[in-house]
Amino acid sequence: MGDIAPRFLTGxxxxxxxxxxxxxxxxxxxVAGGALTKAGQEALKSFLKAINIPEKYWHELGxxxxxIVVCIFFSLRQSLPQIGTHFYTNPGIESRRNGDWSSxxxxxxxxxxxxxxxxxxxxxxxxxxEDLQLIDQARPQYQLAIQGGIPAATNNLARLxxxxxxxxxxxxxxxxxxxxxxxxPLDTETKYAxxxxxGWARFKQGNxxxxxxxLLQAIDLKSPTKLENYEIAAPHCLLAQVMExxxxxxxxxxxxxxxxQYANITIPEQDEWAAIAQKRLTxxxxxx
Length: 288
Description:
Layout: H1 5-9, H2 15-36, H3 38-50, H4 58-78, H5 80-97, H6 101-114, H7 119-131, H8 135-147, H9 151-163, H10 167-183, H11 188-205, H12 208-220, H13 229-245, H14 249-262, H15 268-280, H16 283-287
Helix pairs in contact: 2-3, 5-6, 5-7, 6-7, 7-8, 8-9, 9-10, 9-11, 10-11, 11-12, 11-13, 12-13, 13-14, 13-15, 14-15
């Protein structure tokens, strides 16, 4: 109980945590009160006599009752990861989708308190901190999620490295993700993001052929992947810049059009790219 209760009591209280701690406390008080106080012992003896339990079995019955209590506590302790996922991580994901960021943060933190190895909770908390532009807080959450085997966290951490101009570190992470894909295939959406970010990092390194190859692969994955509009824009915005660097102005112009059409200006890098796209396009092309 000393191990379980603080996990629910730390941070903002919630109804499920309060119920769990209260139930443990009541059970503990009943057991301790019956076994350790004179009044409790007398009451227990009277109860056993009333139900016609012979006195010679009282010690065995007490031991059996204690074993049941221990098993209850042990089962609850072993169930904490499942409780964290069901009652906190999954509702937290829904809260984040609905824009209730404060509740989402509390739920993810509670899930981590119940199970420090909850990789999904760490990953979702990292996403939430990115939503809030708390990049320095997102980074360690992604690192912990990577240790838990979430490939998307590798991609997201690499993106943060690119934004900090740590291109070599980003490329290393992304190549590891693609190497993992050979053993355990990534889902299409994650692979799309990995290839896009690898193309971005290679572009920043000045490796234009490799950047173009990776961005074209990402664009090829666009059709079978159910993407939000803002996810479509990035490889086109980057490919336009790669083509410009290679003096392919005609090819770049076509990519700028797609970039301008789908860019989401609430995402910092896409806002920057959209501004460049609008400078490259004529007013008529911008409106199309």
